Amino acid sequence: MKTIADTLGVVRSNLVAQATAGAPDRRRGRRSQPEAPLLAEINEVIAGQPTYGYRRVHALIRRRCCEQGGAAVNVKRVHRIMKAHGLERHTGNGEERIMTAASPARRLLASAAAISRASRAVQQAPHRALGHNPRGRSPITGIGGPRDC
Fold it and tell me: Rg (Cα) of the chain, in Å, rounded?
């Protein structure tokens, strides 16, 4: 391939791209399985427990498949189907979570801890700017430490 590319005066990667340009795209992997039976099973589980997310739904479906002797279902597939059909319960950013009575107290403690970390960082900023590191480690790599010389 190198000899051909040198003879034509082109780069090898360009030569490969030109050779594959006319070829039809072949899909790799297995063909997709029909979603309808799995979607029906997901809807059946959600009808009984509407608060379940994709992980719990997958666990229940997998348990049913194992009991009946069927093939296991992939959790990613369950998640993809639930997401495509609008059956997902949580967005992941915490907005839809149910708040408990302890939540305001936890949020207050978390904000106090964040303020404490921020004030500590402000106090240490002048020392770090001068190259002083209290742990004796490199600020870039994090390697090293106190040494006995």
Answer: 29
